[in-house]
Amino acid sequence: MKAAFINQTGPPENIVYGEFPKPAPSDTQVLVRVKAVSVNPIDTYLRGGKVTMKLPMPYIVGCDLTGIVEAVGRMVRRFKPGDRVWGSNQGLLGRQGTFAEWAVVDESWLYPTPANASDEAVAAMALVGITAHLGLVRVAKLLPTDTLFINGGSGGVGSAVIQIAKAIGARVIAAAGSDAKVEKCRQFGADLAFNYRSVDIGTELRRSAPDGISVWWETAREPDFDRVVAALAPRGRMILMAGREARPPFPVGPFYVKGCSLHGFAMFGYSAQEQQPSAEDINGWFAAGKLHAVIDRVLPLSEAAAAHRLQEENTLAHAGTLSGKIVLRP
Fold this sequence. Notes:
Layout lengths: L1 E5 L9 E4 L9 E10 L2 H8 L10 E2 L4 E8 L11 E4 L14 E5 L3 E3 L6 H21 L7 E5 L4 H13 L2 E6 L2 H10 L3 E4 L5 H8 L4 E6 L6 H7 E9 L11 H6 L3 E4 L7 H16 L7 E6 L3 H12 L9 E5 L1
Parallel strand pairs: 9-10, 9-12, 10-11, 12-13, 13-14, 15-16
Antiparallel strand pairs: 1-2, 1-4, 3-5, 3-7, 3-16, 5-6, 6-8
């Protein structure tokens, strides 16, 4: 089969698109004919060796996939050949990735694809949707009566955070770095959105949320904690999901006096069983038309190296040339 893989960690040019042995499912695994995959920042960190994690070599890159079940192991009960499925969390913790014509995935990491959803849309929503759901529901315990602020709402995770928060019923305020991205936040369902390059975040939040922010979701790698704590409501919660090397100052006094809480998390730290409720809700919202994937472009799998380079330029160098997910098709 054709696959995009590396023989050693390094730059995007290390990705080889070529022949790779077609896998066979074990007792609890499902063989999936891959229809679409998407690129995530974590994919580039693993390929580049920036995140230390056990990788089988040669290593097929990629976490997300959608496809059709071709065969199942003898202990698989939830799926049968011909079923449409999707999943995430592959290519992590010793598992092979998904950028290939076929992939074997443990049954516990797969979910049925909603009938009304395209393979590209579900692939684009997989990791970012589960991340947003875990952060909002499991970690921050977002309520319909809460006000959420998302700093950076136009990207993959940000767009999922806005849509899921609105599906829950919360009020959503979003900030983005251009007028075009602000308009996208509104299209995703944000009740209020503004450009943080032309409007001061603190001033705007004091005006639009005088009682404070219940949940602040931060996508920036270097948060301004003084600004965050000033904006949080009593017992407000903050979600951190980026900035591995960041060491910004932190206002301990104002934070604890308000009774606030700070939550850092990475979705791959949660088990398949813990992620199952996220996938079930995502499927329900897809079926109800409440979730819409944000896709910047669709490329052939043979362009995996170029896709990684583009993702890296935007994640690390802030090139601003992406507005949504990169989806690849075998």
